[in-house]
Structure formats: structure tokens, C-alpha cells
Amino acid sequence: MTNAVSSSPRTNSMKPVISRTCSNDASTHRFFWRPIHSSDQTALACGGIENGTGSLRERRQSRRAGEDEPKTTRVNTDAKPVSALRFSVNTKLKIPFAIRDGRLIHISEVESGRGHGGTCPACNVPLVARKGAKMRHHFAHRPEAICNPETALHRTTKILLCEEINRAIADQREVTASWRCSLCDSQHTGSLLKKARSVRLEHSLTTCRPDLTLFDEESRPVAVIEVVVTHAPEEHVREFCHREKIGLLEYHITDEISLDTLRPLTVLRARVGSVCTRKKCPLCTAPLRSVQLFVGDGKCWKCKSKMKVSLISRDWLKDGPNEFNAAALEIAQERGAIFRLRPPNDAGRRLLANSCPRCRSITSEFFLMDYGYLAGRGDGVFVGYECSNCDWKRSI
Ligand SMILES: [Zn+2]
Ligand SMILES: [Zn+2]
Ligand SMILES: [Zn+2]
Ligand SMILES: [Zn+2]
User: Fold this and answer.
1) Ligand 1 center–CA 123 separation, angstroms
2) Which ligand gives the minimal distance to the CA of 34?
């Protein structure tokens, strides 16, 4: 197979179709895009639905019946399937939502069976409400339906988030968002609807069409949410958000059970976000790290007497007194820490270190790391900022 794959994800009948050039006979084959079993991949490797090589179903049936492949087809058994077809499909997804009259209905709102009138949010076909005693209640496709469960999960999540954000805006209710910051790598929380007054699904923003766009009262986009099931947001969405300084949150969903946690929406736990709530460096605008001082009880490694041990922490970075700023030195000494200069190191520098009040032994950086747990206690004293990118620092 060549890598020159042209794909048209939807036909008019909403059946996803993939077109590609065959390396065997250079013709173009077109396939319905559907969850495939590995045994189908040979059939997919050469054989189309349009150019006289027989339908996939016929070919599969003839293989099962032990017949030879149709003579018009030259099957390349060494051909690797196109990577776009090799995603893992969780066919066990039991999605508890369907669309009716343009809105999502939950499985709990309908009777079992086909009478509810709900359709699949992805492929639009009527669904069956399964409300048995054994399995989690869900809407199911008929066996012959062609639908990718992950597309269905992706689309359901988008619509659900859009409906829930709209509802929260109408009710003037707060929605908290949390995300791992892609700029400073720490966890942030903030109000999702601080500036947002409306939300739109798949709204076109000149160069891209994000899953959800939040707008302020002047209809300017203020944030974008991309729902991720298997594929990361497209690069031009990231580029657009970066260029226009619009926050991008990636909400990852791996199973349909999480859908129930989104209604009602009170907290949106995004995996990654490009909004940094930290102060920015006055020189280079990179996020600043806050410097925290920790002073705890320790024991002298030599004479075993009690001593105070101090260290500073900025995110994951921990250092001893040699890296302290003026405020850290002063506060640590007020809290009982004693410092001494170490003997010169290989570079001839004398570093400041914690010292034992009794025998005056110093606690080297190596031993100081035994006290790294102090930084996890949450009782640090804020002593200043450091830039995460340049040498800018400020002591309180
Ligand atoms: Zn479907
Ligand atoms: Zn940040
Ligand atoms: Zn000592
Ligand atoms: Zn800087």
C-alpha cells in the first residue's frame, strides 16, 4: 500500500469511506471504514467495492467457505494495512446517550427497545435501548450497522459538554476546570466560565474548527476544548490557539462510564491545557516558579544530635542553602537553621550548607535529599520567584 492515502471520512449516507492507491495494480480502492478484525486486513489490503474485485463481504464469505479469491484480485499477503486502519477499537463501548430532536437523551429516560426514537450521535442510525439485568444499560446499534464506537464516544462527549456548558451558563453556575499546564508542567485549576457567555460546537475559526469554542460577551473566542479519544488535537488548532492567545484544553475520554460524570457538569478534568495561571517573567514572559522554603527536624549524620534542616523547592527542583535567596536565608535562620561554608569543592567554590549546632558537621547536598520529603508537607514559606526559562529571580 502506498502512504498516499486520500480519505473522505463521510459519504452522503454517513458511511465513512477510505480511498487509497493499491500497490498491486495502482488502481484506487474504496472501503467502508469500520471496526476491523485482524483477519480482515488481508481483504482490506487489496480489493475494493467499486472496481470489480468483489465486495468485502463476498470476499470474506468466499474465504470462510474455503474458496479461492476471485481471479481478478491479486492479493498481496505481505502488504501491511494502512496505519489509519490500525487503531484499537473498543467494540464493547456501551454508550448511555442517543440523540433525539437535536438533544441528547440518557438511557434512564427511555423504555427498553426501539420505541424511543433516539439515533446514534455519530452515524445517525436508530439505536436500540438495552436495559437488561446483566449489562450496564446502553443504546446499541443493530448488528449490521457500520459505526466506529470511538467516533460515537467522541461525538457524544462533544455534544454532552456543549449542552452542559450551555446549561451552566444559563443557570449562571460555576464550572471549575483543572488541567496539567503545558507551559509550566504543574496542575492548575480555574473557572471555566469566568469570561465565557456562550459555547458553540464545531464552530469555524478561520483556519480550524475546534470541537467546542467558548465566546465572551463580545463574541470573541476565549477558550477552546478539544475532546480526545484516540487522536490528539490537530496541529492547526494548537497553532491557531497559540497565535490568537486562546486557551486550549484537551479533555481525554477513554470509556463511556466517564460520560455520566459530565452531567451535571461541575468540574471539567482536562488532561492538558495551554493556559498558565502563574505570574510571568518580566524579562522573557515564561511562567515563574514560586520558591518555597522548608525547615524541618533532622539528625546530624555524625553525632546524631537533633538539628534543623532547611531546603528550598521550586516545582520538582530542590536545593540547599547555597541556592537560597536573602529571604530564605533569613527565615531559615529565624527557625533555627545554622549554616556554614563547606570546604572548597573541585571548582574551588565554597558552598553554603546546613550545619550541626553541636559538632559543626555539614549536611551535604547528597544527604539533604534524604529530607526531600519536607517539601511534600505543604507548610512551605513563600520566599520569592524564579523564572523557569531565564536567570531572573526575585526575593520577597
Ligand atoms: Zn453510530
Ligand atoms: Zn502553568
Ligand atoms: Zn553533629
Ligand atoms: Zn525569564
Assistant:
1) 4
2) 1
CB atoms within 10 A of CB 26: 8
Do strands 362-363 and 267-273 pair parallel, antiparallel, or not at all (unpaired)? unpaired
Q: What is the pLDDT of residues 274-325, one digit of tens each?
A: 999 999 999 999 999 999 999 999 999 999 999 999 999 998 889 999 999 9
Phi, psi (degrees; rounded to nearest 5) at 43:
-60, -35
Coil vs helix vs strand at 130? strand
Amino acid at 138: H
Distance 129 CA to ligand 3 centre (A): 73
* Cβ-contact 184, 287 below 8 angstroms: yes
pLDDT digits (tens, 9 = 90+) for 47-82: 333 333 444 444 445 444 444 444 333 444 444 433
Distance (Å) from CA 200 to ligand 2 centroid: 26
Give me ligand 1 centre to Cα 210, in Å. 21
Closest CA to 220 of 196, 247, 202: 196
Supply 146's cell numbers: 457500520
Instruction: Kindly tell me the sign of the dihedral angle through the C-alpha atoms of 258, 260, 265, 266.
Output: negative
Coil vs helix vs strand at 19: strand
pTM over 0.70: no
| The three grid cell numbers given for residue 14, joined into one nine-digit string | 454517513
Protein residues near ligand 1, an ion, with CB under 5 A: 120, 122-123, 147, 152
Å from CA of 227 to ligand 3 middle: 57
Whole-number Å distance, alpha carbon 181 to ligand 2 midpoint, is: 4
Q: In terms of C-beta density within 10 A (0-12 exposed, 13-18 middle, 19 or more buried), how is residue 152 classed?
A: buried
Provide the sign of the torsion angle of the four alpha carbons 44, 47, 49, 54, taken in this order.
Answer: negative
Q: Cα–Cα distance between 120 and 167 in angstroms, integer?
A: 22
Q: Where are the domains of the chain?
A: 5-85, 97-150, 152-273, 288-395
- Quote the cell numbers at residue 341: 561554608
CA of 385 to the centre of ligand 4 (A): 10
Question: How much distance in Å is there from the Cα of 184 to the middle of ligand 2?
Answer: 4
Q: Residue 288 C-alpha to ligand 4 middle, in angstroms?
A: 7
Q: How far is the CA of 224 from the centre of ligand 2 (A)?
A: 17
Residue 26 — left, alpha, or beta (φ > 0 → left; ψ -120 to 50 → alpha)?
Answer: left
